Amino acid sequence: MDYYTDAIFRALELIISLDPEVIQVVTTSLKISISSTFIASIISMPLAVLIARNKFKTKKFINIILNTMLSLPTVVVGIFIYSLISRRGVLGELDLLFTPIGIIMGQVILIIPLITALIRNVIFSMDEKLYKTATSMGASRSQKFKLLILEARYGIIGAVIAGFGRVLGEIGVSMMLGGNIKGVTRTITTAMSLETNKGRFAFALALGIILLSLSFLINFVTYFLQEGKDYARR
Amino acid sequence: MQEDKIIEVKNIKKVCRDKTILDIEQFAVFKNKFNFIIGGNGSGKTTLLNILSLVDQNYRGKLYYKGQEINKDEQNLKFRRNFSVIWQDPYLYRGNVFYNIALPLKLRDINQNIINKKVKEMAARLEIEDLLEQSAYTLSGGEKQKTSIARALITAPEILFVDEATTNLDEESIQFFNSHFADLVTDEMTVVMVSHDSRQIKELADQITLLKGGEVEITKTINNFNFELFGAGIEAPIAEIV
Fold this sequence. Notes:
The structure holds 2 protein chains of 2 kinds.
Chain A: H1 2-16, H2 20-53, H3 59-69, H4 74-85, H5 100-124, H6 129-136, H7 141-151, H8 153-169, H9 172-178, H10 188-198, H11 201-227, H12 229-233
Helix pairs in contact in A: 1-11, 2-5, 2-8, 3-5, 4-5, 4-9, 5-8, 5-9, 6-7, 8-11, 10-11
Chain B: E1 5-16, E2 19-30, E3 34-39, H1 45-52, E4 60-65, E5 68-69, H2 77-80, E6 83-86, H3 97-107, H4 112-125, H5 141-153, E7 159-163, H6 171-184, E8 190-194, H7 198-204, E9 207-212, E10 215-221, H8 235-241
Parallel strand pairs in B: 3-8, 3-9, 6-7, 7-8
Antiparallel strand pairs in B: 1-2, 1-4, 4-5, 9-10
Helix pairs in contact in B: 3-4, 3-5, 5-6
C-alpha cells in the first residue's frame, strides 16, 4: 500500500514542481491535440451544415455512415493512416510516419465524424424560423451561414471541445503513427503506457492526474456551455 | 402589366407531399396600398405571403416585381433587400434588442454610426428604447413583436409583409399595434398583410383578397368590396367564409 501512497505523493510533487519532462509531454500532447481539433473543426462545420440543411438522395446513407464512425476504434484509424504514410503507402515519400503531422492526420480522421455528428444535431435542433427570418432580412447565402454558426455557437463549441477531449485521451493513433519518440511525438497517453511498463509509476500517475484534470475541465466547460444559464433560457 | 401593380404572380402552384396547397392563376399586389390577404386556416395565406416575399422559392409559376420576372436563386438578393417581413411568431437572434434591430442594416454593410442613430430612432418610435440593452430572450411577447417590427422597418422597405402580427399578442399589445401601425408605415411603402383582425381590415385595407382552399376566391378594392355578399359588416364575411 505504501508503494501506491508514495507514488501518489511523488506524482503530485512532479506536477507541483513543474517537472520539465512532464511539461514537455503535456505540451506536445496539447499542441498535437489542438492542431488536430482545429483542422477537424474547420472541415466538420460546413460538412455538418451541408448534411443538416440540405436534401439529397444519399443523406440517410451518409448519416448512417457518420453514426457508425462515431465508434471508430483508434487503432483502425491508425492502420488506415499507417497504410497511407508508411514507406510503401501513397504518401510514403512525404516521410510523415512517426511525426506529429502523422498523428494529427490520424486524429483529424478520428474526430471529424464526432464533431460533424454533434454539430449536425445542433443545426437540426435550430428553429426553422431562424432561416426564414435571415432570408426575410436580406441575408446572402454566406451571411445566412454566418448567422447560423453564430446562433449555434455554444453547441458548436461544445462539439469542438468533445472532439478535443477525444483526441487528448486517445492512444491508438498516437502510438501507431507517432512512435512515442521522446520530445517529438510522446503524448500524455503514450508516455503513461511506456512509463508504467518501465516501472516509473509515479511519473505515469502524474500524467494520469493531469489528463484527468484536463478531462474534467473540458467536461465542465462543455456542460456550462450547453446546459448553462444562457442555454436554459432558450 | 398595370403600373400600379408592384408584384404580380401568374399560375403559381405550391405542392407539398402530393397535396396542392396553393394554386393561383393570377394575383397582384398594388403599389402604396394596404393589400390584405384573408381566409381560413389552411387557405394558403401564409404560403402566398412566403412566396411573394421571396422567403419560399420552392414553387411553380412566375413572379414579377415591377414587371421584371424574379429568378428563384441567389440573384434575387437585390429584390429581397427591398422587402421586409413581420412574422406572427417572430424569431429574435441571440443578443440584445439593439443587435436584433440593427441586424438588417449590418447585413447591408451600413456604417455603424448610421446604424446607431437609426436603431435609436426606430426604438423610440416603437417605445422600446429602454429595452435596447436587454437580452432578446427575456422579452415578453409584445416586446418581441415590437422589436421585430422595428427590425422590419429599419431598412425602410419598399414592400412590408405582415403575417398575422397580432395573433399571439395580448390586448394591450394589439391596441398598440393597431393605433401605431399606420403611422409607422410611410406613404411610399406597400403593405401586404395577412390578418384575421376585423379592426385592422376595416381601418387599413385598400385591397382585400380572399383565399379559399389555396385558390383566390375574390379580390376587391375596399371601396367596392361587397360586404353584403357575405352578410352585414366586415366581421361577418370573414367569419362566414372561414
